[in-house]
Design brief:
139 residues; mainly alpha
């Protein structure tokens, strides 16, 4: 299996989270009715404090998916382009993606910070493993 597949899955998951956050925000905003008018031009982070926390959690997670995974994608491409992807790097790429999906679901529903951090830390260790291999591949 290609090391690019986990990256493609994470792209798809990020888009799923985008739709989930949009649904959560619009649903919560509709329940506010005219009690809390939303001024034109407000950004998501301006609207989040007016919504229930569970609606905002999805947007926070989507923002997270636009942060650290931006390191994951080029790391995977380096391993692919150099032809140095191995079964273990593919497994670690899948582990990273699966942990990020678990992190998304957890943050969007339960959101206990210490558990979420443990999931994040574990995924970061997978990314570190991949990054070290990418550096070695380019030496």
């Amino acid at each position: 299996m290609s090391i690019l597949t986990p990256a493609a899955v994470l792209v798809l998951w990020s888009l799923i989270m985008l739709f989930w956050l949009a649904y959560a925000r619009f649903s919560a905003a509709a329940k506010l009715g005219n009690k809390e008018p939303v001024a034109p031009g407000l950004r998501g982070q301006d609207i989040d404090p007016k919504l229930p926390p569970s609606a905002a959690w999805k947007s926070h997670n989507y923002a997270h998916l636009m942060e650290q995974p931006t390191i994951f994608y080029p790391t995977v491409f380096i391993l692919f382009l150099t032809g140095t992807a191995t079964p273990i790097t593919v497994i670690m790429a899948w582990a990273y993606v699966i942990l990020r999906i678990i992190h998304s679901i957890y943050q969007s529903t339960v959101n206990k910070v210490m558990v979420r951090f443990a999931i994040f830390l574990t995924s970061t260790l997978c990314l570190l493993f991949l990054a070290v291999h990418a550096v070695l591949a380019t030496l």
